[in-house]
Design a protein that fits this description.
The protein is built from eight helices and five strands, in the order βαβαβαααβαβαα. By secondary structure, the chain is of the alpha/beta class. Helix 6 links the parallel strand 4 (133-138) and strand 5 (161-166). The two termini are 21 Å apart.
Length: 199
Amino acid sequence: MAFSLPTISLRENPRGKYVGFDYFESQDLLEWIKFLESKFGKDTKFILHGISMGAATVMMLCADKCPKSVKLIIEDCGYTCAKDQFEYLIKKAGIKKPETIYNSFNYFNKKIAGYNLSLTDVRNQVKNTKVPILFIHGDKDDFVPFEMVYELYNICPENKRTIKVIHNATHANSAVVDEKEYFDALTDFYYCAQSLSKS
């Protein structure tokens, strides 16, 4: 049995009040997995599929935090970390020194939400992933920069990485732009991973 899980906050205040850019959300998702294991058994198998911040969330669970029940991860247009994402959008707005604005935001984020945005960096997790990851990104994405998918793909172990670029797709729009290609990539990834696990 396989599940594809949404990221839903189970937490009470203050964590339930604030966006975690994958920090809180990955903890919530881990709680969902544990809950479903308790309901359906430890032999339950999960496929985690996330888009945008959801993609960063599922990547956060691919390495040392990865439950044995998680078998595959699909990340669609995820970012490397909140810092990179913030600075990219600030530069895009025409501000030449994004570090000042980012540092100010992070200062208040630590005071109010209680966590440092540096904790949202998924690169170390991807580098040490325990499960195969399918990286999906639209080449016209101007919100999460397209280059990020290659940075993540290139640091992922060769035997655990697959990439699919959807041409002419903007942010979080790949499945809409080319539905057949998108879901064919998911199907191919699933069966390829299944065959590798049996070899």
